[in-house]
Structure formats: C-alpha cells, structure tokens
Amino acid sequence: MKAKKDLAVLALVALVAGCGLTIATIINRNKNEHPKIVVSNFVAYDFAREITGDKDIKMLIKPATETHDFEPSPQDIVDITDADFFIYNGGESERWVENILQDNNISENKTIRMMDFVELKQEDGEDEYDEHIWTNPLNAVRIINAIRDHLIAKNSGKVNEYAENADNYTSRIMQDDQKIRDIVKTAKRKELIFADRFPFRYFVDEYGLDYSAAFPGCSEQTEASSQTITELIEKVKANNIPVILKIELTSDALAKTIASETGAEIRTMNAAHNVSQADFDAGKSYADYLEQNIVVLEEALN
C-alpha cells in the first residue's frame, strides 16, 4: 500500500514539474486567489470590489431593478451556497435572505450582514428598522472595515492588499464627510425637500438636517395625497427653497408638479439603492455618488 502511495506522489510531482510548476507555486496561487463573493445589492458589491480589487463579484439584484421586489432564482441560491462569502444588508426587504440561509444550513461564518455593524434607527411611523444605513458616510466606513476584517480572516495572504485598499477608500469617504460638514456649517438653510421616497434618514441625522418628504422611507406608495403635495408646495414657497429633490431610478412626475408651482429646480440625490446599467458598466462607485450628492446638497441648502 505504501508503495502505491509513493508512486502516486511521484506521479503528481512529475505532472507538476512537466507543467513548469512547483507544489509551492500551486499552494501560493491558491492563497493569493480572491475568495468567491456573492452580494445582494450594489452597496455590498461596491464595498467588496473596492477592498479586493476583484470585479468578478456576483451581485444578485441586477442594475436598474427595484431592490424591494427582488426574488432570488434557483441559480442565485446555488451561488450563495457555493460562495466563500455572502454579503447582504439585512432588513425587511431582504427577508428572503434569512429563508435561504436557514433552508440551506449556510454557516454564519460565511455571511456578512451589514446592518450588524451600525447603530440602527427605526423607520418613521414603522416598527421596522430603516435599512438605508450606508447613506451616512460614517456608517459606510464602519461597514467597509468590517468586511475588510472578515475577508482578511479568510485569506491571510491578502492582509496588506485588502487593508491598503480599504484604507484608501475609507479615507476618500472621510474627506467627503468633512466636505458635507463644511457645507452644512455655512449653509443658508438646514432643510431638504424630497418630492419622492426618503431613504436618507441616517444622512440627515448625522449632519443635523431637517427634511420633508412625499413618502416615508421607501414606502411602496406611488401617489402622494393632495394634502401632502399642497404642504410641500407651501413649504417651498414660504422658505424660498431653491431645489427640490428626487432619488435615483424613480419617476420625477411629482417633483415636476411641485417645481411648476414654485419655480424650484429639480435635482437627484443618489441613495445608491441600485444603479443604472450604464453606471454599473462604467464602474461607478458609492463614493462617486456621494460626491455627486455633495454638489446637489450645496445647491439645495443655499
């Protein structure tokens, strides 16, 4: 039996040598490979991509689709099961994740739930927690660092690379955080008007801003009441608010109605729920959207 094992080892060595490789090379190559990562949404995709430099991360919720109506396919479930890491946000719109993890006995060691790493706030008028944790840049930094630590624990061969990438990205976000604070400090007004859904609770709370919105949180409502529309119009007129806001990938019909009555300009603040296919293909990042929002914010508050 020992002779057969020795022959097998010799055969493997010969095969490797014939390919111009060494066993040490194979071991190091495996150590240097990125883990297989599957994520639920764009923010998780962006954070993992920035940390690893790996563009082959699978994002389950496709670009330009409604994040709150997503249902996983059988292949999505297979991909989650086979992944080294599955990163998801958590919350009401991702209840489907909990079912998959439980039904498939997926280990907690390979899952990263982003809502676990920040202080949560309740949705206005709801019993559920607001899911849009990343809209506060400081929360984004906390989440990026948590993902970095999990990935490094899985692949110690990438410690320096992942740590440096995470540090560069969080430094950029922290610079943007300071720009926002500087804008708010000297702004003429401290209120934002959203003629749309409102996923920016964590953002306005962090920077001490007030807001009015047509719909609470990411309400499934699509039609605002006449009373709500009237109140928003009156507020914009009374306070000479120059800009009203909508969010990405939604209709601007309500914003146009209010703009026509008040003369205010319409601008988009991007909550990075999801991205257009064009932006995804172009490699747009969370930080890119944050920096676009800074321009909009300065206009809206002055």
The helix fraction, in percent, is 40-55%
Query: What is the tally of beta strands?
Result: 8
Radius of gyration: 24 Å
What average pLDDT do the residues reach? 89
Describe the sheet with the most strands: 4 strands, parallel
> Roughly what fraction of the amino acids lie in strands?
5-15%
Give me the number of helical elements. Answer: 12
Q: What is the oligomer described by this structure?
A: single chain
Order of secondary-structure elements: HHEHEHEHEHHEHEHEHEHH
**Poorly predicted sequence stretches spanning 5 or more consecutive residues:** 1-30
Shape assignment = globular
**What structural category arises from helix and sheet content?**
alpha/beta
Placed side by side, the strands forming the largest sheet appear as 2-1-3-4
Q: Gap between N and C termini, in Å?
A: 83 Å
What attributes does this structure have?
single chain, 302 residues, alpha/beta, four-stranded parallel β-sheet, two-stranded parallel sheet, 12 helices, globular
SSE order and pairing:
Elements: H1 2-18, H2 23-32, E1 37-39, H3 42-52, E2 58-59, H4 74-82, E3 85-88, H5 95-103, E4 111-113, H6 137-154, H7 159-186, E5 191-194, H8 201-207, E6 210-213, H9 226-238, E7 243-247, H10 253-262, E8 265-269, H11 277-281, H12 286-300
Parallel strand pairs: 1-2, 1-3, 3-4, 5-6, 7-8
Helix pairs in contact: 6-7, 7-12, 9-10
